[in-house]
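agent> step 3/5: call structure_predict on target 'Formyl transferase C-terminal domain-containing protein' (termite gut metagenome).
agent> reason: downstream docking stage needs a structural representation; sequence fetched in step 2, passing through unchanged.
tool.input:
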Amino acid sequence: GRRKNTNKEIIKVTGELHPAPKISKETCRINWNQPVKRIYDFIRGLSPYPTAWTELQTLDGERIPIKIFESEKMVRAHSLFPGMIETDGKTYINVGAVDGFVGIHTLQLPSKKRLTVAEVLRGFRLTEEYKFL
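tool.output (status=ok):
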C-alpha cells in the first residue's frame, strides 16, 4: 500500500515537553501495599530490564534482594498482610497484595541466574514465615 504523507504543520505540540523521569533502583522496588493488577503491570513493565525487585526477609531478619521477572495476578480474598507468602515449598510462591495474590513465576537470587520458582524451591528452603518487604 501507499503511505499517506502528513503535513508537519498539522501536528501541533500542546504544552511544554518534559523529559521522562529517570529510572533508579529505588523506583524499581515493588510496593506490596497496592492492588494486584498494579503490581503485576509494574513487574511486566520492568522486565527484563531494569527489573522489578523486592527484599525477602528471613526468620532471623536477614534481607535478601530478589529480582522478579514474570508473575501472574490472582484476584481473590485472603487474610494475609501485603508481602506475606503462600507456598507449598515445591512449585509455587504467591505473595499477598491488597486485593489478592501475585504469583511469581521467574526470579533471580543474588549472584545466581534467572530461574523458575520450582527450580529455586528445589535448592532454597522458603517457608510461609518469610515475607517480602
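agent> step 4/5: record observation. The helical segments are 36-46, 117-123.
agent> proceeding.
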